[in-house]
Amino acid sequence: MKKLSLLLLCLCGFFPFAHAQEEEGPRVNENSFLVQKEIDVWRTDKTYNSQAAVYACQAVRIHKNWFLTAAHCVYTACSGSQPCTVQITLAEAELRQMARVYHSTSSQRVFIYPGFFPGQNRISSVDVALIRFEPESADFSYEAKKKGVWEPITQETFYARLPDSPETQDQLNASGGRLVSSANLGNSLFRPGIVVPKTVRGEVFYLQSPSDDIYFVEKLQHFISPGFGVRRGNSGGGVFTPQGDLVGLVSSLMYSKNGSASFYDAEGKAVLTLKNARDYFLFTGFNGATMNFIRNKVPSLRVIGADMGYAEPVKKNFEEIVKMINGVPMDF
């Protein structure tokens, strides 16, 4: 796998922000990030062209038949009775394979956490959704790159060439991984750091947190750390430990014009409003609500409790925690 260390930080484009220096933190298992894929989502009754609203996000393959993403990535196109299409780039190296998954009320493939409700100036602790991938009902496309241009090929040609492209094979075979459950955690310090990858055209980029001040806050059912460059544009992507365990997802950061954001619990009740939310990296973990939602759908899920070597309880309240984070005071 090519070793790259940059992360997409903009909703509509890609540009380098910073180099993740391995000497600044634990060694990163880059191969574990192959489970992260690009997805595009749109209303099935809309043509996939410049006139359609296409939502580009990331998703993590937690099982051979299941992808995990952020609820806000699929909510607009797939919620209610709306039929939608999810296009997943399963592999992109010398060869490319994409699959289209079709969701409808009669054939459900997209499952949004029922308590998720998007809205302006809102951060949700239940911003998760699942995509069921059944190869027998999906439409596949196969391509090969010729002189820098992707050209369609047949399924037979794709699989005949596949042994000559180990990078494509590795991407196709990547699935599973272990989820870190934050269910029943109190306020805790999280070790040994976090890494946020992104897959772009088959290349894996990542940004590693330079800080050890990463906390799970029971009141918010959310993780919080000093900001280290992760902004919009990586929605639905995983937040991993350096070893490759999945801690959570890059969730919706719905700021108001003044940079504030509000936290809501699973019942939609406002917990607090954070005025300077842009100074922090906030992400959805697998708390009791989200973990139960995932477990009820995905078989043979590999899970480890955050208290099994990752989380250290702290006797600090929320206000004391945020005062410790990067010297940035929390402003309510």
List keywords for this structure.
single chain; 332 residues; nine-stranded antiparallel beta sheet; 5 helices; 23 strands; 35% strand; disordered N terminus
Task: Provide a descriptive summary of the structure in words.
By secondary structure, this protein is mainly β. 11% of the residues lie in helices and 35% in strands. The protein is built from five helices and 23 strands. It has a nine-stranded antiparallel β-sheet. A seven-stranded antiparallel β-sheet has the order 17-18-21-16-15-12-23, with helices on one face. Strands 7-19-20 form a three-stranded mixed β-sheet, with no helix packed on it. The model is unreliable at 1-23 (pLDDT under 50).
In the CATH scheme, what's the topology name? Thrombin, subunit H
Number of helices: 5
Radius of gyration: 19 Å
The run of helices and strands is: EEEHEEEEEEEHHEEEEEEEEEEEHEEH
Q: What is the overall silhouette?
A: globular
Beta-strand segment tally = 23
Largest sheet, in brief, is: 9 strands, antiparallel
Q: Mean pLDDT, rounded to whole units?
A: 84
The CATH level-2 architecture is identified as Beta Barrel
Pick out the low-confidence regions: 1-23
In short:
The chain is mainly beta.
Task: Draw up the topology in text.
Elements: E1 36-43, E2 55-63, E3 66-69, H1 71-78, E4 84-92, E5 95-103, E6 110-112, E7 122-124, E8 129-132, E9 139-146, E10 149-152, H2 155-161, H3 166-173, E11 179-181, E12 188-190, E13 195-200, E14 203-208, E15 215-217, E16 222-226, E17 238-240, E18 246-249, E19 261-264, E20 270-274, E21 280-285, H4 288-295, E22 303-305, E23 311-313, H5 318-324
Parallel strand pairs: 7-19, 11-22
Antiparallel strand pairs: 1-2, 1-4, 2-3, 3-8, 4-5, 5-9, 6-8, 9-10, 12-15, 12-23, 13-14, 15-16, 16-21, 17-18, 18-21, 19-20
